[in-house]
Amino acid sequence: MSDGTREGSRRTMSGADAMWLHADRPNHLMVIDGIMWTAEPLDWARLRRTVQERLVDVYPVFHQRPVAPAHLWELPGWEDDPDFSLSNHLHHAKLRKPGGDAQLRAFLEKKVRRPLDRSHPLWETWLVDGYQGGSVVFSRLHHAMADGIALAQVMLTLTDASPDEQVAPPEPVLASRAGRLGSVVSSGTALLRATASLPTAPVTALKGVGVTRKLLLDVLPDSLFSHEPGVDKRLTWTRPQPVADVKAIGRATGSTVNDVLIAALAGALNRYLHAFDESVDRLTTMVPVNIRPPDQPLPRELGNKFALVMLHLPTGEMAPLQRLEEVHRRMESIKHSPEVLITTAVAEGIGHLHAVEKPFVDFFAGKAVGVTTNVAGPREPRYLAGVEVTGILGWVPGSGGQTLGVCIFSYAGTVRIGFKVDAATVAQPERLVALVEAELDSLRQLVTPDRAGSAASRPAATRSGPPTTSPPVASTGR
User: Fold this and answer.
1) According to the CATH classification, is domain 179-377+390-457 in 3.40.50.300?
2) Mean pLDDT, residues 267-275 taken together
3) pLDDT of residue 422
4) Where are the domains of the chain?
5) Distance of alpha carbon 341 from alpha carbon 346, whole angstroms
6) Is it true that domain 6-160 has CATH number 3.30.559.10?
7) Which of 88, 98, 315, 440 has an alpha carbon within 20 to 30 A of 75's alpha carbon?
8) Beta pairing partners, 126
9) Mean pLDDT for the chain overall
10) How confident is the model at residue 470 (pLDDT cuts 50, 70, 90)?
11) Which residues contact 140 (CB under 8 A, 6 or more apart)?
């Protein structure tokens, strides 16, 4: 069942989808990038068949291209690409020798700066052989197709719970929630019910005024992250961190896993700024929140069903546990405010403005240094075309003057943080990665002294995935 109207093979986009379609800029492509890698080589023919059966045959937007509206007051739409060919979207490549981290990074960074061809469906996937004796599947999906949480779920339907290939597409393996930010969703749902009752209406209205002031009047403090971004981006990522360690910190401090990771990010930003003789009390990041009904499968038409809330990262001088407590307090405040509802309405409205929407997108984007997202992936290993997936990473796009994207992705008992940064603005992303890891180690030491440094000291098999340079490299995204 479609959310839009249909005329033959054509259907109309939602306002939110249209906003992301129109938000492309040369220095900010609205493309969500992600990789899955395996320790053994993947079979090209089997991967092609899997992509055809699990993506193209199931989700229409994978064989449809965007089309302009017939009238200025209408929204754009999707229509079947008459020249669709899987070969236009699924490509095969091999890394230069020795096929290590540097070669993979160079390959990815070259691709992410290229816009997708709008005369065809807005996606491409690369099978990259020669990486550490295995393969990498690198996917680029335009934000107009769907939000990042939905697209992560879609790409994970390429995988199976066992090496035996399934004939039918598998059940979704990613919950219909915004990862560990899912509690925000339930709060937003509860708020919808609360606004219907008269006693809570004055309180909700007052909070709504506060959120509106925040969205309209907030000013991002000037810092080295405030420069106009260029076309070139850097992609980096942390070493895998045991989820059990992060949960232990959360249990000891009465905070969530997401709180712990966000606090480590805020602390790392504080220390990174200090290295350049800068200091600010807060840096704002946009946090995506899923608003799809929980426990319901994705619609075949996909689309964007999420809100962006503004989180003030506490980047001032404070002790690690104090910073964690402050992150928890700020996240709880957002969960009990109408910000999700307000920003959802704003995004839908901007999409209907067509030619004059750019100033509105830039206005709201300019209130944050970037986007930070958190996706809770499968807890157990998955298999892609019969081969075990050893790691997953993602990177989110920014807009306006944003220079710092962070994506937290957990998979099979570990969590990695991926950064997509403006190459000129964030000159030393490897240092930022090392600082995030150092902040997590500090929190481990404070709450569980005997486990400090446990991630770095584990056997290499536990730390499987892209090797890191010295200092270790990390990346941040949606």
Assistant:
1) no
2) 97
3) 96
4) 6-160, 179-377+390-457
5) 9
6) yes
7) 88
8) 91, 138
9) 81
10) very low
11) 31, 32, 33, 111, 112, 116, 123, 124, 125
